[in-house]
Amino acid sequence: MSSTRAALSLLGCLTTGVLLAGCGTPSGGADASAGPTPSAGSTTRPTPTAAAATPSAAVVAGIGKPASRPRRTAPPTRPATASGGPLDAGNPAGHAAVPAEASAVDTSHPARTIGHGTAASCTSAAVVAAVAAGGVITFSCGPRPVVITMAATAKVVNAAAPRVVLDGGGKVTLSGGGKRRILYMDTCDQAQGWTTSHCQDQSEPELTVQNITFADGNSTGDTAEGGGGGAILVRGGRFKAVHTRFVRNRCDSTGPDLGGAAIRVLDQYHGLPVYITDSTFGGAPGEGGSCSNGGALSSIGVSWVVLNSVLSYNNAIGDGANPARGGTPGGGSGGAIYTDGNQYTVRVAGSVIKHNDAKEGGGALFYVSNDHSGTLAIESSTLTGNPSHGFSTAGYPGIFFIGAGRPRVSASTLG
Predict the structure, then answer these.
(1) Rounded Cα gap, residues 394 and 400, in angstroms
(2) Which of 44, 74, 146, 317 has a beta carbon 3.0–4.6 Å from 27's, enabling a disulfide?
(3) Computed over its alpha carbons, how large is the radius of gyration of the chain?
């Protein structure tokens, strides 16, 4: 796990269009990304002390005009949920092309099946055992939707299988019961088997979650890899989520750099991106995630591609930003998405990010590339109604950005 720090001067703040009353105080540090030692770090950036004035709405790059967009691949079949309708995940109006590596995995020949055709046979213990064994995993819990309340966190055993796929068939909800994280993979956790000498940069296991709901996960007080990841925590290997719903997940309410009420990711093989496809985080009032930073997603040094998804009603509730202002515990940035690191990228396409809230900066999205090498792209998406109560980047409502140039926004609405 890398620890990144950057010295950010007043000139740097001005060139990125950041309006921060407290900007200009430098902080230094060293990049320790080369070593395999499995330890989490934190980053430093300007400590904002006053809210920035940003336009209340912005129409960007030809929104409202017909746009030539690539045809997306067919979404996964939408099976039934507890309400009797299709699994309500993703943005049906999104038309971003979905590459093969971002698509659902074929589960027609599972390695193992949880349950024996009844709801009673689909237990927390069965989920924990199946995830530890690895491979393609499906469920047989009867004809009706089922909620499995986890009595323990399901953990990937790193040497068990090169691939772990958890497919709920649209009928399964895994619940943390408001008490625990639901799913965990860490290639640098020796308790799960340290399989290489470069645990922070290895290709396996590959973890996929699809056609499933993660509800009421809560990692509060869990300090693994620095905390965060209320529903799912991943470090190393590869990870993606396809046609998956995340509701009411939580992690610690304060802290300058921890986050990800739904998902926290640290390190991916060769810097390849995490794919989030056709998924929903929150989706309705009272259904969103809540954490110090990143009410839905959070990472350090990890790239993301978010396709045809919805992130709404999520909250970053920490206080004091990062580094924490004097007298505060820190946090409060990235109402939906909180990302940090050096050379990494974030791309949001065909997606809706709305009604998220950050107590500090980036009501929709917080992006900091400490060495100003990373990029942010927003394509054919809508980001509206995402208040930043502390600071934001001028001209980009709901976004705080420090990186290479400015965010690349096309055929999208910001407001």
Answers:
(1) 9
(2) 44
(3) 20
- Judge contact between 146 and 152, C-beta under 8 A: no
Contacts of 321 (CB under 8 A, 6+ apart): 45, 47, 48, 256, 330, 331, 332, 333, 360, 361, 390, 391
Could you tell me which of 187, 119, 110 has the C-alpha nearest to residue 147? 119
| Amino acid of residue 376 | L
36-62 pLDDT tens trace:
333 333 444 443 333 333 333 443 333
Question: How far, in Å, CA of 350 to CA of 290, rounded?
Answer: 24
Residues linked to residue 382 through DSSP beta bridges, in sequence order: 352, 413
Alpha-carbon distance values, 160 to 112, 130, 199 (Å): 13, 11, 15
Record the tokens describing residue 271, joined without a space: 């810097």
Q: Of 396, 385, 323, 377, nearest to 358 (Cα)?
A: 385
pTM of the predicted model, to two decimals?
0.84
Tokens 């089922």 belong to 146
What's the full length of the chain, in residues? 415
Distance CA 313, CA 247 (A): 10
Q: Over the range 301-316, which residues count as b (16 or more CB within 10 Å of their CB) and which as e?
A: bbbbbbbbbbbbbbbb
Q: What is the pLDDT of residue 140?
A: 98
Q: Which residues pair with 127 in a beta bridge?
A: none
CA dihedral 368, 94, 139, 118 (to 10 degrees): 120
> In this structure, is the dihedral angle defined by the CA atoms of residues 87, 352, 398 and 380, taken in order, positive or negative?
positive
> What token pair was written down for 53?
């004035």
Give residue-wise pLDDT tens across range 224-238: 999 999 999 999 999
Amino acid at 157: V
Residue 77 Ramachandran class (φ > 0 left, ψ -120 to 50 alpha, else beta): beta
Cβ neighbours of residue 99 closer than 8 Å, sequence gap 6 or more? none
> 17: which 2 tokens?
């269009």
- DSSP codes joined into one string, 94-112: ------GGGSPPP-SS-SE
Amino acid identity at 326: G
Residue type, 310: V
Closest CA to 249 of 167, 170, 149, 182: 182
Assigned token pair, 380? 């054919």
- 215 exposure class (CB count in 10 Å sphere: 0-12, 13-18, 19+): buried
Residues 6+ apart with CB under 8 A from 59: 413, 414, 415
DSSP string, 151-186: SS-EE--TTT-SEEEEE-TTTEEEE-TTTS--EEEE
